[in-house]
Amino acid sequence: MTGTIASVTSAPTAHGHRARIALRTVQVLLALFFAVASALPKLIAHPSAVESFDRIGWGSTGMYTIGVLELAGAVALLIPVLQSVAAIALSALMVGAFIVQLTVFDGQYAATPVILMVPLTLIAWARRGHNAELLRLVRRRA
Question: Which residues contact 8 (CB under 8 A, 6 or more apart)?
Answer without folding.
Answer: 16, 19, 20, 23, 126
